[in-house]
Design a protein that fits this description.
The protein is 20% helix and 30% strand. With 1055 residues, the protein is α+β, with helices and mostly antiparallel strands. It has eight domains: 52 residues, Sandwich (Immunoglobulin-like); 72 residues, Immunoglobulins (Immunoglobulin-like, Sandwich), CATH 2.60.40; 89 residues, Immunoglobulins (Immunoglobulin-like, Sandwich); 83 residues, Immunoglobulin-like; 78 residues, Immunoglobulins (Immunoglobulin-like, Sandwich); 138 residues, Immunoglobulin-like (Sandwich), CATH 2.60.40.10; 296 residues, Protein-Tyrosine Phosphatase, Chain A (Alpha-Beta Complex); 106 residues, no CATH class. Strand 1 and strand 2 form a beta hairpin. Helix 17 packs parallel to helix 19. Keywords: Disulfide bond, Glycoprotein, Hydrolase, Immunoglobulin domain, Membrane, Protein phosphatase, Receptor, Repeat, Signal, Transmembrane, Transmembrane helix.
Length: 1055
């Protein structure tokens, strides 16, 4: 009987009972290896064979265990056997340092079986494994090999070297291990000499094994020795430490350590240091400093402290400083000299013509705040006048109409006359020759009709009717100013108040001149005092018994500054006094109908006054909540009161200042127009608004000034107000242990929403983490890098890897994610004596430039959204810090609070919130640039919205964008693409890029770069934001992702 079977070489693969009978299909299953398989058919007629070559495709097998063939201090070379008979596309190497928390680093696309891994740490044990990749995918890894990198000479010197004199002409020298030992330290060499100008080969050498202190004897009395220390490994010597000095005199203090420069201004330099040893009996310090290298030294003595501000210095001048401590036994060794240059002087700049009238020119300039007078001289038309630059503007009067004048301004910066400025202005033509006429009998009571003479309106942009009350509050009559010499900026400020409520407008002093009507075209007549709004001006009723004059103001087109023409004053007119009708005297029953209502009114007024007094009386319950603003948080750190009332609005009600009254909240619909107005004329109004903010320095800071707490302040002038400072739980027996340079800051509708603090110092690391624990904080925001422009801005208060203990808190680094503009670190916190563990995230914004503010707010807004998304709703205050904890920190808090406000009220109150913050911590929002950046960030947030979408929701979001928006004729995708055109970078930044020869490389290239960024972000963050990615690229090169089709392709490609 015929049969068919499968065979592999001589092995039968088909069981006898499965051989087909009467069928022409025979299946071979469970094929596990690539080979030639033979199908054999046999019958009485003979045998037929057919051979099938089968290739089995599967994931590759693990390569053989890697073999280390060579090691250096920073690299390891390995080889391995492929372990796979089938082709391998490439190999992947994974390696990590042998520590519990380390993660594998990956090197892929390796096409050989030998590879050198570089960039490793010296003297570190590594684990390395290899896996193969074919067309199916990546196979399992090989068995790991363990190896240790070689040693190097230390890369850094011993730290914190100090010396102290002992009896019998000897001294003890101490130090700490180098930060980068690069191997096992075999020992140290201490070099010392009485003449530090000698080469190091002539210094005395003292060898030390297995110790970080040593005693040197047989020193020469009354001599000063310089000391330097190096560490060495089996490979070689490390670098020398900086020289420290010590004087061989029994009982004198050691040389101060960490002597460095702090804050610098144009006339002062702050110096900071630490004593060599505690309890040295220092009674005072002697500071020596001089200008340049060859000037005579100046000496200053002052009581013990750890910082000192040298004042009265010359601007833009280099000074050198050295310091020594003095005890009752004498003066110790001076530190090595350090040098620092003072900043450029605060000189006036940006001299411009602010406005002109027919007889007056108003010059304006910028000048930073200064306590000292600063003289400038203005010359014109053979006349000369002096002005103090702090005035910021100057009225030059008595000029001729329609005449060009040249003004030369000299500022006395130095003996050579200082910088000179030239400003040209032309006075206005005399177009309003006749005064308006009044018909005082045409209307009853306090309403007047004014008629205007015909005026040529060819170059007139606006007409304003100005009311000038003559009587003051005391009833005296003011001296009448010529309309040309009035402060027109003050008059026009009221026009800007169209955003205000009638109640706010009514609060303005009606005895000051004001604008009562605005016209594009001048009518023949106008009624004054009708109590109606006309355009953006309120035609307020005239005050009874007041004397008035009126004039017409015209705003003309001008090429430089603003130009105004004024008419002469009208004749003086007095409004009628208020007439009060006497009550008729009744007798009998009629008297009841008079007295009764009067008494009722008096009774009602009394009740209203009582309610107001009770409302304003401090409530004991509220007082108990506000008094332990710090104390209560000690014992109940998890209680964060959330008040339905906004703290800023409460401040506006209870602590209204003229500045807050003049700067009300701005609707977001008018934010763009408001910001444009502030930035007009070289940020003139923004500068004035920023400078008018209450500095809020009337509060006490006694705890910051305590001697025990002064070393905990990074900057001597940035302190913590007593009434808002964060109070730590005191440690038994430790004076000042409740102090940290931190303040609570209110947010939108939430008290103590934030804590603003300085960048932690090494001596305050424990306090910082104690504050994080006690306040139940889940989010720390860091707005600075550790070092900027070679200056320490903040010390690293977290472990680089593994676990570190700071005071009573163990901090373990769990994860680090480094992105283009910020870094996210996740820590696990455990407090000694507690079984609880908590997770805290630190968000570090790394894109803030060394000087100024970010050019575009887009990266900062993305950072802020990430912070808000990750902060749990039940967490304690967000702790924010930069270096001093006032500038960038203030920006972060204001922008975050205003974004919350926008969600609920559709308004922003930047001015009010900065004012509130400055009453809680000094210097909040430190510069005008930062204040401007806050406006830019909020404007972009309002204009662009939040286009970030979770990756899992991308499909439904694209479907939504494909639909036509209600009230529109285009899809959401088209609207989003058009919105990109609204945020353009200034063309001056792209002069070369906009040339025809360079206009390629923005279409498909833009799509490629966009997708590269989007896909990488999706991988790490799980979110997609095509709009902001393209917007950010366009700030670096115009027109990236050129067409709507390309923009739409980015969305679909990201799916």
């Amino acid at each position: 009987m015929p049969y068919v079977k499968w065979m592999l070489n001589s092995e039968d693969l088909t069981p006898e009972d499965e051989m087909p009978v009467g069928r022409n299909v025979l299946e071979l299953s469970s094929v596990r290896e690539s080979a030639n398989y033979t199908c054999v058919a046999m019958s009485s007629l003979g045998m037929i064979e057919a051979v099938a070559q089968i290739t089995v495709k599967s994931l590759p097998k693990p390569p053989g265990t890697p073999v280390v063939t060579e090691t250096t201090a920073t690299s390891v070379t390995i080889t391995w056997d492929s372990g796979n008979p089938d082709p391998v596309t490439y190999y992947i190497i994974q390696y990590r340092a042998k520590s519990p928390d380390s993660k594998y680093e990956t090197v892929d696309d390796i096409t050989t079986t030998r590879y050198s891994i570089g960039g490793l740490y010296p003297n570190t044990e590594y684990e390395i494994r290899v896996s193969a990749v074919n067309t199916i995918g990546q196979g399992p890894p090989s068995e790991p090999v363990e190896t240790r990198t070689g040693e190097q000479a230390p890369a850094s010197p011993p730290r914190n070297v100090r010396a102290k004199i002992l009896p019998q002409n000897s001294m003890v020298v101490q130090w700490e291990e180098p930060e980068e030992p690069n191997g096992q330290i075999k020992g140290y060499r201490v070099y010392y000499t009485m003449d530090d100008s000698q080469p190091m080969s002539l210094w005395h050498i003292h060898n030390v094994q297995d110790s970080i202190l040593t005693t040197i004897q047989s020193l020469v009395p009354e001599e000063t020795y310089a000391i330097r220390v190096l560490a060495f490994t089996s490979v070689g010597d490390g670098p020398f430490s900086e020289a420290v000095s010590v004087k061989v005199q029994q009982g004198v203090p050691g040389q101060p350590s960490k002597f460095q420069v702090g804050a610098v201004s144009d006339t002062s330099i702050e110096l900071t240091w630490e004593p060599a040893y505690d309890k040295e009996g220092i009674v005072r310090y002697e500071l020596r400093y001089a200008e340049g290298k060859f000037s005579t030294l100046t000496k200053k003595d002052f009581p013990p402290r750890r910082s000192y501000v040298v004042e009265g210095l010359r601007p833009n001048t280099e000074y050198r400083f050295s310091l020594a401590a003095i005890s009752n036994n004498g003066i110790g060794a001076f530190t090595n000299e350090i040098s620092e240059r003072t900043l450029q002087a605060n000189v006036p700049k940006n001299f411009t013509v602010k406005w002109v009238t027919k007889t007056t020119v108003v010059l304006a300039w910028k000048f930073s705040e200064s306590r000292s007078p600063y003289k400038c001289t203005i010359e014109y038309n053979r006349q000369k006048m002096d002005v103090d630059a702090r005035q910021l503007k100057m009225f030059i009067t008595g000029l001729r109409p329609n005449t060009t004048y040249e003004f030369r301004v000299t500022c006395q910066e130095s003996v050579d006359g200082g910088p000179r400025h030239r400003v040209v202005a032309r006075t206005a033509p005399h177009i309003l020759v006749k005064k308006p006429k009044l018909d005082i009998y045409a209307e009853p009571e306090n309403i007047l009709t004014m008629s205007f003479p015909p005026v040529s309106t060819k170059d007139v942009k606006n007409f304003y009717v100005v009311v000038v009350p003559l009587k003051t509050t005391t009833g005296t009559v003011k001296n009448l100013k010529n309309p040309d010499e009035m402060d027109i900026e003050e008059l026009l400020r009221e026009v800007i108040l169209k955003r205000r409520s009638r109640r706010q407008l009514a609060q303005l002093d009606q005895r000051n001149p004001y604008i009562t009507a605005c016209f594009k075209q001048l009518p023949t007549s106008f009624t004054v005092g009708s109590d109606h709004y006309l355009s953006s001006c309120e035609n307020k009723p005239l005050e009874p018994g007041q004397e008035y004059v009126f004039f017409l103001l015209a705003e003309l087109s001008a090429t430089v500054g603003k130009m105004f023409a004024t008419s002469p004053h009208t004749d003086t007119v007095k409004t009628p006094e208020m007439v009060v009708d006497p009550l008729p005297v009744e007798t009998g029953d009629g008297l009841i109908w008079v007295v009764g209502p009067v008494l009722a009114v008096v009774f009602i007024i009394g009740i209203v006054i009582s309610i107001l007094l009770l409302k304003n009386k401090p409530d004991s319950r509220k007082r108990k909540e506000s008094e332990p603003r710090t104390k209560c948080l000690l014992n109940n750190a998890d209680i964060m009161p959330h008040h339905p009332t906004d703290p800023v609005e409460m401040r506006r009600i209870n602590f209204q200042t003229p500045g807050m009254m003049n700067h009300p909240p701005i609707p977001i619909s008018e934010l763009a127009e408001h910001t444009e107005l502030l930035k007009a004329n070289d940020n003139l109004k923004l500068s004035q608004e920023y400078e008018s903010i209450d500095p809020g320095q009337q509060f006490t800071w006694e705890h910051s000034n305590l001697e025990v707490n002064k070393p905990k302040n990074r900057y001597a002038n940035v302190i913590a107000y007593d009434h808002t400072r964060v109070i730590l739980a005191p440690l038994e027996g430790m004076l000042g242990s409740d102090y940290i340079n931190s303040n609570y800051i209110d947010g939108y509708r939430k008290q103590n929403a934030y804590i603003a603090t300085q960048g932690p110092l090494p001596e305050t690391f424990g306090d910082f983490w104690r504050m994080v624990w006690e306040q139940r904080t889940a989010t720390v925001v860091m707005m600075t890098r550790l070092e900027e422009k070679s200056r320490i801005k903040c010390d690293q208060y977290w472990p680089s890897r593994g676990t570190e203990t700071y005071g009573m808190t163990q901090v373990t680094l769990l994860d680090t994610i480094e992105l283009a503009t910020f870094c996210v670190r996740t820590f696990s916190l455990h407090k000694n004596g507690s079984s609880e563990k908590r997770e805290v995230r630190q968000f570090q914004f790394t894109a803030w430039p060394d000087h100024g503010v970010p050019e575009y707010p887009t990266p900062f807004l993305a950072f802020l959204r990430r912070v808000k998304t990750c902060n749990p709703p039940d967490a304690g205050p967000i702790i924010a810090h930069c270096s001093a904890g006032v500038g960038r920190t203030g920006c972060f808090i204001v922008i975050d609070a205003m974004l919350e406000r926008i969600k609920h009220e559709k308004t922003v109150d930047i001015y009010g919130h900065v004012t509130l913050m400055r009453s809680q911590r000094n210097y909040m929002v430190q510069t005008e640039d930062q204040y401007s950046f806050i406006h830019d960030a909020l404007l972009e947030a309002v204009a662009c919205g939040n286009t970030e979408v979770a990756a899992r929701s991308l499909y439904s979001y694209i479907q939504k964008l494909a639909q036509v928006e209600s009230g529109e004729h285009v899809t959401g995708m088209e609207l989003e693409f058009k919105r990109l055109a609204n945020s353009k970078a200034h063309t001056s930044r792209f002069i070369s890029a906009n040339l025809p020869c360079n206009n390629a490389g923005v279409g498909r290239t833009g799509v490629f770069i966009t997708l590269s960024i989007v896909l990488e972000r999706m991988r790490y963050e799980g979110v997609v934001d095509i709009f902001q990615t393209v917007k950010m690229l366009r700030t670096q090169r115009p027109a990236m992702v050129q067409t709507e089709d390309e923009y739409q392709f980015c969305y679909h490609a990201a799916l």
